[in-house]
Write a structure and sequence with these properties.
single chain; 239 residues; alpha/beta; 7 strands
Length: 239
């Protein structure tokens, strides 16, 4: 499978993460705890969507596309940095799909990598290729998670999900919601992952493999998107 782009030079990153999660080998990679919770939500959702036409936009190496294609799903993926039999090179900013093509578009950890101006372009394009009443499933980090709020209050600094040069379009939770609504998406559900309770969250990041249960239960005891580290939006296209 030929690969394009620096991020994939060392192999199929998400496939490697999935394998580690399945084997229970979290190690010191605390972000795998978040990734595992996210993928559980997404796969539970997709398991009920057979017969729908699905696009995984910014899908990387296309682990989900490959998995569900083999199950007989009508699913395809695009990514600007990768191509394979399951993924074609393409950008969500401008696709060659016809209007009203898809029932579902997945946009998983993609929007925060786009500039603010490009986010508007991406959502406009997604709206175009989504059918009326189609669903956008979008996961994004929350710049206003609990630890970030406290850190900003005390020190005037934010706690980002990644380096600012990588998450150039990271936003606080309410801005993502407003952005979707401004493009006439009806937000039907928001699922928050990992409440970053100070001290407890920091300890989990140091010992993630030993503290998986602490993460899964104490840091995910309730669905509170406003202060969670990652949010999954389910939004309906109300053209």
């Amino acid at each position: 499978m030929p690969k394009r782009g620096w991020i994939y030079e060392k192999g199929d990153i998400h496939r490697e993460w999935m394998e580690k999660i399945e084997e229970g080998k979290i190690g010191k990679e605390w972000y795998l705890l978040i990734f595992r919770k996210k993928m559980k939500f997404i796969t539970d959702f997709l398991d009920k969507q057979k017969g729908k036409k699905i696009l995984d936009a910014g899908c990387g190496e296309g682990v989900l596309v490959e998995k569900y294609k083999k199950k007989g799903y009508d699913i395809e993926g695009i990514d600007p940095n990768y191509e394979s039999e399951f993924v074609k090179t393409g950008s969500i900013l401008q696709t060659d799909y016809k209007d009203n093509t898809f029932d579902i578009v997945l946009l998983l950890d993609v929007l925060e990598h786009l500039s603010y101006s490009d986010q508007y372009i991406a959502l406009k394009e997604i709206k175009r290729i989504l059918k009326r009443d189609g669903l956008l499933i979008m996961s994004v980090p929350n710049l206003a998670n609990l630890t970030s709020r406290i850190k900003f209050f005390l020190f005037g600094k934010l706690s980002r999900g990644d380096k600012d040069w990588n998450h150039i379009g990271e936003r606080p939770f309410p801005e993502y919601k407003s952005l979707l609504e401004s493009h006439k998406f009806k937000v039907e559900e928001i699922y928050g992952i990992t409440i970053t309770i100070p001290f407890l969250w920091q300890i989990v990041t140091v010992f993630p493999e030993k503290l998986q249960l602490v993460h899964d239960f104490l840091l995910n005891f309730a669905n509170i998107p406003q202060i969670s580290l990652l949010n999954i939006f389910i939004a309906r296209n109300i053209k």
